[in-house]
Amino acid sequence: DIQMTQSPSSLSASVGDRVTITCQASEDISNNLNWYQQKPGKAPKLLIYDASNLETGVPSRFSGSGSGTDFTFTISSLQPEDIATYYCQQYNNLPGFGPGTKVDIK
Amino acid sequence: EVQLVESGGGLVQPGGSLRLSCAASGFTFSTYWMHWVRQAPGQGLVWVSRIKGDGSATNYADSVKGRFTISRDNAKNALYLQMNSLRAEDTAVYYCARGDTSRKTHPYWGQGTLVTVSS
After folding, report:
1. Among B110, B43, B29, which Cα is nearest to B73's?
2. Among the four residues A2, A48, B96, B109, which has the most C-beta atoms within 10 Å?
3. How far apart are CA A87 and CA A102, in angstroms?
4. CA distance A23 to A8
5. Which of B49, B53, B52, B20 lies closest to B37 in space, CA to CA?
6. Mean of the per-residue pLDDT values for chain B?
7. Interval A12-32: pLDDT, tens
8. Which three-class secondary structure state does DSSP give residue B100?
9. What is the mean pLDDT of chain A?
10. Rounded to an integer, what distance in angstroms lies between the CA atom of residue A69 and that of residue B22?
11. Is the pLDDT of residue A97 over 90?
């Protein structure tokens, strides 16, 4: 099975800050990497697919990059409504999620 | 508009069974892989199972293999998860999620249904 790690597990940042989350796969998954946002009590929401493609309707302050085993998710200017937990997901064969990164406001 | 509505969750004793349902609307159900993903209280997302659009192929996470069965009824636009031999560690919110024809993603999710396994 492909193992996913994410760092940090949590972070606290100020409104307007640039926030970066990294995700690493235990083997090469090409660009089969997605990012989801989950707010408390809600279902996950797809933000980025195929490592770097912005899902329709998602604000452009969200972005993703990477391929192979190392991936990065960035919020260019953190907004109060971005408080959530963010998960990477590999979908090279069967899907699997990273452990999540909880983002809150400092 | 794509809608996925789960039902069937509840309290069940260890060793018991439960059947979850997911009613789908707003898209051609038989075209898509459908998935179950669960989330234990305060924990992360865990993929559970998937089934191909025509029902001809299924996959399971190792943690549920042999105990859970995914199925679908394309005439009713419905997805199911039969859960047997339930354990305390199966306690979670269970989400159904739709796949995508051209992307390896889950662009649509239901609101989830809570399964609690406890005596």
Report:
1. B29
2. B96
3. 9
4. 9
5. B49
6. 97
7. 999 999 999 999 999 999 999
8. coil
9. 97
10. 34
11. yes
Q: Find residue B51's DSSP bridge partners.
A: B34, B58
What per-residue confidence (pLDDT) applies to B95? Answer: 98
Query: Residue B42 pLDDT > 90, yes or no?
Result: yes
* Spatial distance between the Cα atoms of B101 and A61, rounded to a whole number of angstroms: 27
A91 closest CA partner among B40, B1, B33:
B33
Residue A70's H or E segment, with its range, is: strand A70-75
Residues of B in Cβ contact (< 8 Å) with A87: 44-45
- Closest residue in B to A47 (Cα) is B107
User: How many residue pairs from chains A and B have C-beta atoms closer than 8 A?
Assistant: 58
How many whole angstroms separate alpha carbon A72 and alpha carbon A52?
9
Return all residues near B36 (Cβ < 8 A) that are at least 6 apart: B20, B22, B47, B48, B49, B50, B70, B79, B81, B94, B95, B96, B97
Q: For residue B102, name the pLDDT band (cuts at 50, 70, 90).
A: confident
The distance of Cα A41 from the centroid of its chain, to the nearest Å, equals 18
Mean pLDDT of A70-81: 98
Residues from chain A that touch B44, judged by Cβ atoms under 8 A, are 85, 87, 97-100
Length of chain B: 119
The pLDDT assigned to A93 comes to 87
Mean pLDDT on A44-63: 97
Contact residues, chain A, for B3 at CB < 8 Å: none
